[in-house]
Amino acid sequence: MSDFPQPAAVKPAEQGRLTRLWSSDFAWAFRHSPVAICSMAVVMLLVLAAVFAPLIAPHDPFNPATLNLMNGFTAPGTPNAFTGEQFWLGTDDQGRDVFSTILYGLRISLFVGFAAVLLALVIGVTLGLIAGYVGGWPETIIMRSADVQLTFPSILVALLIFGVAKGFTPVEYRDQVAIWVLIVAIGLSDWVQFARVVRGATLVEKNKEYVQAARLIGRTGPAIMLRHILPNVLSPVLVIATISLALAIIAEATLSFLGVGAPPTQPSLGNLIRIGQGFLFSGEWWILLFPACTLLALALSVNLMGDWLRDALNPRLK
Amino acid sequence: MIAYILRRVFQSAIVLLIVGLVAFSMFRFVGDPIDNMLGQERTMADVERLRVQLGLDQPFVVQYFKFLGNAAQGNFGVSYRQGRPVATIIRERAPATLELAAVSGALAIIVGIGLGVFTAIRRHGIASNLIMSLSLIGVSLPTFLIGILLIYLFSVELDLLPSFGRGETVMIGDWSTGFLTESGLKALILPSITLGLYQMTLIMRLVRSEMLEVLRMDYIRFARARGLSERLVNFRHALKNTLVPVITVTGLQLGSIIAFAIITETVFQWPGVGLLFINAVQFVDIPVMAAYLMLISVMFVAINLIVDLLYFAIDPRLRIDGRH
Amino acid sequence: MLKLTAASVIALSMGAAFATPAHAETFRWASTTDPQTMDPHAVNAAPVLSFLNNVYEGLVRRDRNMAIEPALATSWEPIGDGQGWRFALRQGVKFQDGSDFTAQDVIFSYERASSPESDTSSWFAPVSAVTMVDDFTVDIMTTAPNPIFPDSIANWMMMDSGWAAANGAERPSKDTENFATLNANGTGPYMLSERQPGLKTVLSAFDGWWGDDRGNVTRAEFTPIQNPATSVAALLSGDVDLINPVPIQDAARLSQSPGVKVVQGIEARNIMFGFAHAAEALKFGDEGAPNPFRDVRVRQAVAQAINVPAIVQTIMRGAALPASQLVSPEIRGYVPSLADAPVWDVEGAKALLAEAGYPDGFSFGLKCPNDRYLNDESVCQATVAMLAQIGLTAQLDAMPVANYWPELRADNFDMYLLGWSSGTFDHEHPIRFLVATPNEEKRLGSWNFGDFSNARIDELLPMIQSELDEGARNAMLAEVTQIYQEQVAYVPLYVEPLVWGVRDSVEVVQRTDNFFILRWANVN
Questions:
Q1: Inter-chain contact C3–B81, Cβ cutoff 8 Å?
Q2: Does the pTM exceed 0.90?
């Protein structure tokens, strides 16, 4: 028996989920890490800019009927000598507004990046769950395939898929399918780490009591995997997904820079940089610099988030 | 132990066969296989001869093995773009890539391990934090941007180093080397930094995190308690145990340098197989793509096999229960 | 940190210690296109012929001002009444392998260069026979009087019959390789000492050359550099002595850079758009629909929609010359009275389209090379935008030049970009190749991919070729020009600028045909 006043017991289960999240350790760590807040802010800003590009962009750079060649090579902020128009970040060689082009290019870069990671995630997590839970032949096949694919660097796999797809596609459709081929190429080259991590975590979870309990009451394999195991293996997946996103964005930029990525009709940041490189030495530095900075900001922020997430979710470093 | 080795070798063989299958499918089904072997200028007699030789009416499996047989003899067909045998083209250009990869790899390992150890030992110093921050940029900057910036800085502005190509090369038998001339050596510097930077950053971060883990271990604390000098503790005990997992990852990463060379070679116009491959992809030059794929695979599989066996030899835990 | 600094210090000091004067004996030059063969009869393309002009020679050659002068022939005179030409050959000339040059080699070279496997056969369309009079005299008989025949063979190079026979190279090989693709044996001032296709080609001086008009270059290395920014960087850092072309946008900066100068001129190459004149249906875009380009009003609309001055101003940085005909004003036979190109008029173009039955425009395929002409892809992209303003949707397909010519030969286009340089420095040349109705026997219209055909032009062409009176000839050329302008056979855009980047320590001569003649170069 105690005379000490009892603290008001707020039962955690009664609070809303959002409130719980906000007051968790994780959120506390986030709120107190300037790095995490900054990088998250940058990423959100870029994503919003990309999503609302049609509303924000002062011009539509990909509608050829609106272009005026005489606007070409205008420096940032200075009026064009012939038409008098002004552009925040200048124009490229065809008279396209660099600012608008970056916004639309961001769309492609982000779309390909997110979609590729999503594809890799879905494939990898599914295969990892199956490998870990079911074991036996499926596990061997999946993990051996993972090993085989790990032997090859992702850029090579991506280039190959792209090259073969190009060979199969008739010329008229190449531009239209390019984006989807890019997504598949990058996504397929990246699923392995998801599979490995999820398999490992599944192996651990598989033997825990709650899984055995679920089996006892008659839940089937897929149901167990999805509803019980999956939520518990998500945290390492989140870290990998973030880092994969940065890699996917860089991969897309690289492939576009090499000339085998996004087509000229739907330029991404990589294409813009490739075009800009040609004008670096002649003095039109803005065509290279702004897309390059945007790419760097994006990749860096995502990487920082991934790094922070890994540290925050790693129990051993606490 | 023999069982382990045999199993790994067997796995490698399977991988090569699968890769061969992919290459064969590309060769056979994308574009015209006769074109792939002979090029556009050919007589009807050539076509007939090759049709029989390739056995195009025979079952898939038979064709597949004939293709592999051809490849094993070094016959990869004729390049669309150049009209010359692919094997010749690759043989001419391989030394360039291999030398570049070797130098980049060495750079990445030496600097990566060195910096990794330094930042682990002096974990909280300013230099350490600076290096870690810069390394993050190193991982976030695409390789091609690094190359462009290096060219601009060192070649155009400062005029210290060449901006393209291999410089003068010397032929030693069939191998053209850039190591024996000053211009060759100068030409290697920027491309190998560009190529090695990503790997260097990865190795550095890996070594650092592994070493931090190891330094936390009990036996290190006991070694210090026994009065061993910091140097002995760090280098004799900690580093050795750090290196074990590092070797695996590093070995695999180094194999991928050859593939990343594609980007560096494009920026620097380095006349290696990477540039050849990217041109082949742009041209849909299937024979070159298939040949590159097969040769690279052989290389990767070999590297992986060696690393695995090395790992097996170093880590006593594996030898005990024979599984990993 | 320590290791990194040490490494860079070592690297830098190595660089300093080993620094040698960069250009002692070797002249290095670079271009975007590697000559695809060393065989002078295999491919009729400027990069090949320009390069081989240093190794092989013809009966005649062009001097610094493009005038024809004697080379392997010391003199020539017409036979009879225009039945042909008699060439007196130079004596004592040796091939680089030591064999003598005789009339035998001329006969052999004629057979080789005019064979079906050769790409230069159309040069010999007017020729009926080549006969040997004696060891050093050759008669070339023509089917009709041909006053400018000697002008047309400046790039026809002599090959040693013995060497060709001994090496199985009696006929040229276009797509696969034979001995002559990788090796050369000419009479010219330089020998081919190393050939790595796509990588490096080395020439060294031939001491047994008969001529004496040469500079001080004893060894020359050619490297193809595909990336223009890389080639500019290479020039600035001294890795090469000459680059051709300099990307237009870098010309200003280069001319202000120390150690480097820009040599600029106008090339005798006209850039133009061609159409599919004969095809029934569109091949791309609104595939299968009746081909709108058969209607001259549609072609006129296209000509009026393209703002050539804007292209010249922006993409060409003012360095190109707007064109109205298939040749530039410097070329013989240019018609000054017809120097007006269609004026840029968007509304007028739309009206023409509506009149022709396409008020809402249509969609088609535009084919373009991306590594052959200066800023070719940019020009095509700009054209896409301009055509969009009158309602035409052009699907641009840009490709490397090695893929491009086969596509055009296979009629796989609706509209395409082309550049043409008159090999004879005469207006008749492009008319013969581009405007005459294609005729394989008579070797006419071999580059008229769109199959443009006009009976009156076909009638006038042979008359022009055999007309000796300049006035009458020019009048006929004027009539032909008027027809092809009114019919919009092609849309001439501009004359290409020639921009070479050269180190200050080097002197070179720039010729309007963009050929780089090594023996006129001097390294100081």
A1: no
A2: no
